[in-house]
Amino acid sequence: MRSCALWKSYRSGVMKLSDAAEYLKEYKGRELRLMEVCGTHTAGIVQNGIPSMLSERIRLISGPGCPVCVTVTEYIDRLIALSHEPGNVIVSFGDLLRVPGSAGSLNQARAQGADIRFVYSPSEMLTFAKKDRYRTFIFAAVGFETTAPVFASMLSQAEEEGIDNIRLLTSLKTMPKAIRRVSDGIDGFLAPGHVAVIAGTDAYKRLSEELGVPFVVSGFTGKELTAALYALVRLAGKEEAGFLNLYPRAVKSGGNGKARAAVRSFFEAGDAAWRGMGLIQGSGLYLREKYIKYDAGSRNLDMDRNVKGCRCSEVITGKCDPGDCPLFFTKCTPEHPVGACMVSQEGACFNCMKNRI
C-alpha cells in the first residue's frame, strides 16, 4: 500500500483502530527499528500501553526528542557557576534542576544557598525582574523549535517594557540535523509532532527522500499514535520511503509562520553540542548580535561528561536500550537520577522504567 493510499484510508475512516492494533500485534514481516523523536510521543506511547501491543519484530527506539536529555553537562556547569555569582538568580523549568552536571545539579546548588527558582512559563521571570531591578535574572532556555517562540515573545516584551536585568543561557536546538545524525539503522521515524506544528513538514519530507525511509507525523492520543505506527510499519515493512502528516489539524506544510518569524528576529543558527552526538553544525539557536545584551554566555558550551557507567548518550542515539545500562533501576532511579534520561518525564529511561512497573 502506497503512502497516498494509507492517507486516504486514514482520512476516510476506513482505517479502524482495532484493525491497526491487530496488524501491529500480528506483524511478521522484516524486523523493524522505528524511532520517535518527540519526548511527548515517548511518554504517550508508554501511557497508552503501546509497547505491549507490538509484534516482537517491531522495536521502538526513543531518539533525541527530550531537550533535557540532550543538554550537555558543560551547560549545567555554566548555570551552576552563574548561580554562585553575587546578584544572580537562575530561573528554570523544573526538570532541569535535577539534571546532573559534572559536579552536582542545580538543586544541589540551591541547597547550598544559590537563588534558583523553577517556573511554569518564562514570562514569570519578567515579573521577578520588574519587582527586583537590582538583581540579574537568568533563564535556563532549553528546548527545541517548539520552545524558542516563547523565549522570543518574552524578549519582545522585555524590549517593549525596558526590562534590562534579564538574561538567557540558551541551549535551544533544531531537530532535522540531529535526526540525520542518528538515522543509521533506523527503518522509519515518527516525526516530532510539537516541533512540526511550528516548523512545518517540509524538512521531514526532504529527510524521507534523502534517507530513503518513511516519516509519519502523529498526534498524541493513543488512537493517533496507533494509526501513525500502523502507517509507519506498512511503509517500512515494504522498504518504502514516503511522508504522511496524520496530525493535519495542527500541522501545516509551512508551520506557524508568525512563530517562525518571531524566532528569526531574535535568534540565528549556530553549531550546538548534543549529548551522544557531539557538535552538529547549524543545529543550535543563539541570540543575534543585536540582542547579545541578553545573553549569559551561551556559545561554546560543548563538553559532556557522563557519570561512569551511565549509558544515557547511547540510549538517546539508539545504540542501546535503557535496560542495557548497568545503572538502570539500581543506582539510577527517578528519585535519584544519575543520567538525564531518568530525570525528565519525556526521557527514555524514565519511560522504560514506567513501562516495567
User: What is the number of independent domains?
Assistant: 3
Tally the helices: 14
Mean pLDDT: 94
**What does the overall shape look like?**
globular
CATH architecture assignment name of the largest domain: 3-Layer(aba) Sandwich
Number of separate strands: 11
Distance between the termini: 37 Å
The CATH superfamily of the largest domain turns out to be HypD, alpha/beta domain 2
Runs in which pLDDT lies below 50 for 5 or more consecutive residues are none
Percent in helix = 25-40%
List the secondary-structure elements in sequence, H or E.
Answer: HHEHEHEHEHEHEHEHHEHEHEEHH
Structural class of the helices, strands and pairings? Answer: alpha/beta
Instruction: Give the spatial strand order of the biggest sheet.
Output: 4-3-5-6-11-10
CATH-defined fold name of the largest domain? Rossmann fold
